[in-house]
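Consider this one:
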Amino acid sequence: MAKAKKKTEEKIEEKAPGKMIIANFEADKVLTEISNEARELYDQSRYGTPLDNGKIQLSLIEAFYLMDKGKIDIYKSKNKKFAHDEFVRKARKLEPNFWVKYCVFKDIRNRGYIIKTALKFGADFRVYDRGVKPGEDHARWIIFPVNEGSTLTWHEFAAKNRVAHSTKKRLLIGVVDEEGDVSYWEVRWMRP
């Protein structure tokens, strides 16, 4: 009985919220308020991209992850907050494959890695080793999230592998099943 009570108290301490960060949905991105908490979120865990005006710009996936974790409230207008399912519906309209990408993002973040967009590399995400922040060193992997029911042609597969090879990163295919669980397949070039 005492152990169960202690675990409950620990969970409450973990969930005890600091100041909730306010963010606003604008077009296809989410912008935080100018606050020490928002800046700290970037400085400690590299969520988003700092802007010159002091705000942090979050991708839809980062914003939903932080919303899901109870770190931010996202407003669609001055006094109206997004509900979880409402935000997902909006994000799915704006970003193809949103849910599959989110499942991979969430899984990687929950494992303690920093995951950022990799559009400039021609991939969905880039992932840094644990303890490494963007700017300190290069990402180790690029990830392509796919639904377990989807198919890739050999040409598509070769193109993804070439992107990884040309950027000197390892290729991970994140396969998301119907329950939202993710399995990873790492692909590397080999010389016999």
